[in-house]
Amino acid sequence: MGILACVLGVLLNLAMIAIRHFGPDPYQEAIDRAAAREARVAADLLKYSDTTLAPASLATTVPLPSASPFPIQMVLDVRSQSDGSTAITVRATSSVPVRSASANLLLAHRAPPPGANVFAPATVAAPTGAP
Known about the structure:
By secondary structure, this protein is of the alpha+beta class. It has helices at 2-22, 26-45, and strands at 56-64, 67-80, 86-94, 99-107. A four-stranded antiparallel sheet has the order 1-2-3-4, covered by helices on one side.
């Protein structure tokens, strides 16, 4: 019975090691979520045509579900494209453990600010004669 318990213990231990090794990486998932969240926040701030965000770098921490938060460096880059769209890139890197993530969003059109008077260009047909 003791030998069976030892064998079962070894097998369960090997299964737990395999799950940790081949399962999802909690550090990578956390840094991916942080980059995607910040990209969505930047897109929300840039949805109006008269808003701007300067490129910025920020040191922060990312929480983990079963461990203490780990430090990351986030970099925001906003670029106007030639077609009038706006490209948003958020890069997040961590040195311990070494991980990196990037989130990219493209705003095709930006809305006018709330309360703005917007006049759509209109084409009026030429008159065809007297009624």
